[in-house]
Structures are given as structure tokens and as C-alpha cells.
Amino acid sequence: MIRKTLFFVLITVVPFWYGCSPKLEMAPGNLPEDWKSKNIPPSQQSGPGDPERGFAYMKSGEYIASGVPWEMMKKKVNKRRDSLTEIEVEPGYFLNYKISLFKAPNGEKVVSGNCFTCHGTTFNGKLHYGLGDTFYDFTKSQKAPAHILNTLVKLKYNKKKPERAAFEDFGNYYKALAPKITTPVFGVNPAFRLAEACVQHRNPVDLTYEKADRFEMMKYTMATDVPPLWNVKKKNALYYNAMGRGDFTKLLMQSVLLGLPDSTMARKVQQEFIHVLAWLESLEPPRYPKTINRPLSLKGKVLFEKHCKDCHGTYGKNESYPNKVIALPVIKTDPWYAWYAKDYGGFNKWYNQSWFAVSAPVSKNVPLEGYIAPPLDGIWASAPYLHNGSVPTLNALLNSNERPEFWQRSGKTDDYDFENLGWRFKSKKNAAGKFVYDTTLPGYGNQGHTYGDKFGDEERKALIEYLKTL
Ligand code: HEC
Ligand code: HEC
Questions:
Q1: Is residue 120 within 8 Å of 133, Cβ to Cβ?
Q2: Nearest to 224 by CA among 377, 374, 399
Q3: Which atom of ligand 1 is nearest to the CA of 255?
Q4: Are the beta carbons of 261 and 105 closer than 8 angstroms?
Q5: Which of 285, 301, 282 is nearest to 293 (CA)?
């Protein structure tokens, strides 16, 4: 059934969108047709902030502002700490680190997800804040859970109850976004669709909820890998196509659109996000935990500095990072994310005339038809690869013949391959089964970036050995 529907989307709907999608006006900073690459310059940032305060705020701050009444949840949560993933949120009450307990603006205690719902994971026996969770399953529809949750809260609390008011925004946005974030493959994250579905129902000036849609959303869910957060300190622009320009504190607030009531609260959150940004900039990548063959890695370094550094920069003593965006016809990786951001999604148009872009400090989304060559710090740990997470290992990234068309992970979060660097996988004949990544779908292709193909096996081994040291 799913395959049938997708086939229909592929054959009829996608070309239709492409053919008649309204071309947006060229945003300032966009480039003429024949550009090949562009280095993004730095922009003024808010700060300085206090990293510890930022980290504490990310874990238990009120930035989502609305959520499920604590009273409803309290009976069901753990009374003792079962694992390294649990945090004591009140004396004798433990919640998974992906969920926060905080006060809504009316003083009611509520719980909802936080940044680490997507940006935290257990890996190699440790909890890593800042490493993307690639096991969150967005292939399951959220429609029924959203509906059930709304009904339960409404049955338990009548309209006059403060718990109901503290849930209202979260309930509305959750219901609105639920049908729009179901992904066709496992292991990817629809964060930008989630933000788009929320702003579809937000007034751009005061950021309040509106029942009516402001624009139409594509019926097909594009999604991406979750980037590791330790690279933020090197970046002059955020997101895979470097569209996030200007003030980072504002850009980071896209994920609070799920519950934030209005621009008054947004201003308070933005002030705290100065500290969140300081925490992000203090993050370091994890070190490769096994033995590295130093002579081999030095050979790899020579190859890297000859073939890769113009785009990805240099590492070690003379560190540099060019913040270079490579145009689609040059990089040749799946174009859909870049196209979506530029021409199809309603998010950027909304954003660039909203509170985020109009009030100081100013931020903007300037989508380019290309992808930024990311810093490769800690790259050994952040599989799968490419913006859409379509390639399971670094070995396959550097040898396009080795890239599987359909691949499946075991579903175990510790099934990592420390030699090929990435997730252990099985190649499959088709997309049937759980945890399968189907690279034949629009937005999920594994083509392009063939810069590693010219190497022999020994050279590739050396390059991988070097990448372990970053
Ligand atoms: C629903 C999952 C989800 C949540 C919740 C979430 N993020 Fe993200 N985040 C993502 C994904 C996916 C991307 C990549 C999006 C893109 O480039 O289009 C991303 C991108 C980013 C980036 C840009 C990184 C880069 O290298 O360009 C930063 C910084 C970031 N998130 C910080 C945060 C913070 C801080 C929070 C909490 C306030 C947060 N995120 C909440 C999924 C999430
Ligand atoms: C012309 C510029 C360019 C060159 C040369 C280049 N890359 Fe890249 N690289 C990119 C871009 C752009 C991306 C992001 C593409 C995407 O996500 O669709 C990327 C992505 C990657 C990634 C995946 C990053 C991630 O987080 O998923 C790795 C690893 C990588 N490159 C390694 C290398 C190595 C090693 C070399 C040298 C053999 C190299 N690249 C040469 C531009 C380049």
C-alpha cells in the first residue's frame, strides 16, 4: 500500500509540483545561474553567553512553553533511576533525557520534548549530548497519537482549568503537524517539515496560533540526517544548504515553534538562547576510541590535503574552514532538499517576513541551490553520511560503487563498524522490511560526491585512517 502510494507520488505528483511550482524571487545573497561555489562570510552574533547555563536551559528550560500536564504523566514515570538515560526532574521522579519538565507561562508544570529528543543519543556505551539520534522512528504516523492526546487532555481538564491552557498551544501544533512528518524511510528526521507545519498556523508578526492554514504544504515528506552540534562553532551559516544566516539564537528557535505562545515569550527565550549558543560553541567531538595506525593516517593526511581540503578545510595545528557551499550541478548529491528549501516549502517565505527576520537581532533564511561542505570533526562518529543520511559508512561514501541502494540496519544502537566507519548494514533487494533505507525515492538518493572514487583500496584505507583522527 505504501509502495503504491509512493509510486503514485513519484509518477504523477512530483513532476507536477516541479513543473508548475511558482519560482520564488531571488533572495538577496542568491547567485546567478552559473555559480559553482560560494564562501559564506561570518555575521554578527549575540553573546557572549554562559555555556553551563545554556546546557541547563536546553535540558529543563521552558522554551517549548507548552506541553502535557505533569499531573497526567507523573503517575506513569519511573520512581528510580533505571539507566544512564534518565534524569531526576523532581525528588523521586525520573524522566528520559529527551523529555523536559518545566513551567508553562501560567505557572502550570508540563512536559514535552527538548533539543535532545533529536540531538542526543547513546553511542558506544555513553550518552552523547549533541550527536544526532538516527534511530528515532518517524515512519510511524503521529496522527492517531496526536488525536488521542488532545482528546485525553480535553476529557480530563475543562476549558477553565489552567492545565488545559498550559496544553493548548502544544495540542494545537501537534495536531497540525502530525499528518505532515511521516517519513517514507527509517533513520531520517523531518525537522524542517515540523517547523513548516507549525508556521503554517502562526501569525508571522506576533507568532500566535491561527486555525486556518497560511499556505499549502507538499504532501510528500522530505527529511534529513541530524547534524552533530559540535560543528556550530566553525559555521558562518546553519543548515545543510547554509540557508540560516544572521543571528544564530533566532535560527535555533525554529524548534520552539511547537509550543511557543507569542512573540513576548519568544523574546525571553531568545535571551536565554544566547547561553544555548555558548554551550553549542563549547562542544567538542568525541575521540575515536580504538587504536589508530599513525603512519597510515599520515599518508591519508597527505591525500586529504591534496584532494579534500579546498572544500572541507584543514585540521590540527593550522586549522581552517572555508564555509563553502557547492552548487548542485557540481556536487551532484540528491537535489531535493535544496530545491524544497528554495522553491517548494512555505517556511522560508514566512520566516523572512516574520518576527525572526524583522526584529533585532535579525536572522534570515537564504536558500541556495547547493550544499555546504561540512566540517569533518568527529566524522567517524556521525554516520550515516550526506545531508539525507543515505550512505551508511565512510567507506561507501568514498567509494560510490559500495553504496547500497536498499540497506538495513539491525536497529541496535551499538551496531557500529569501527573500521568502515559507520553503521553495520545488510544490502537488500527492495524496500520491504523494517529499518530499510530506500535510496530510490526523491529526496533520499545516494548519488554524487564521487571524490573518493579515484583512489585505490590502499589509498582509501589511508584516508579513512586519517578521518579517524579528526
Ligand atoms: C525534531 C528534531 C529536532 C529538534 C527537537 C531540534 N533539532 Fe536541531 N536540527 C534537527 C535537524 C534534522 C537539523 C538539520 C536541519 C536542516 O539542516 O535542515 C537540525 C539542525 C540544527 C542546527 C544546525 C546545525 C548545522 O550544522 O547547520 C542546530 C545548531 C540545531 N539544530 C540546534 C538545535 C537546538 C538548540 C534545539 C533545541 C532548542 C534543536 N536543534 C531541536 C532536528 C531537531
Ligand atoms: C568540491 C568540494 C568537495 C570536495 C573536493 C570534497 N567534498 Fe566532501 N563534501 C562536499 C559537500 C558539499 C558535502 C555535502 C554534500 C551533501 O550533504 O549532499 C560533502 C560531504 C562529505 C562528507 C559527509 C559529511 C557528513 O556529515 O555527512 C564526507 C565524509 C566528505 N565530504 C569527505 C570528503 C573527502 C574525504 C574528500 C576528499 C577525498 C572530499 N569530501 C572532497 C564537498 C566536497
A1: yes
A2: 374
A3: 41
A4: yes
A5: 301
The pick from 224, 226, 376 for probing ligand 1's pocket by mutation, whose C-beta has the most ligand atoms within 8 angstroms, reads 226
- Closest ligand by atom to 225 CA: 1
Gap between the Cα atoms of 235 and 375, Å rounded: 8
Q: Which of 314, 136, 310, 341 is nearest to 237 (CA)?
A: 341
243-289 pLDDT, tens digit each: 999 999 999 999 899 999 999 999 999 999 999 999 999 999 999 99
Cα–ligand 1 centroid distance for 128 (angstroms): 15
331 Cβ closer than 6 Å to some ligand 2 atom: yes
Closest ligand 2 atom to residue 330 Cα is 1
Distances, alpha carbon 102 to alpha carbons 57, 63, 166, 252, in Å: 10, 9, 11, 19
Identify the nearest ligand to the CA of 389 by its number. Answer: 2
Cβ 376 under 6 angstroms from ligand 2: yes
- In the predicted structure, residue 133 carries a pLDDT above the cut 50: yes
- Which residue is listed with cell 551496531? 415
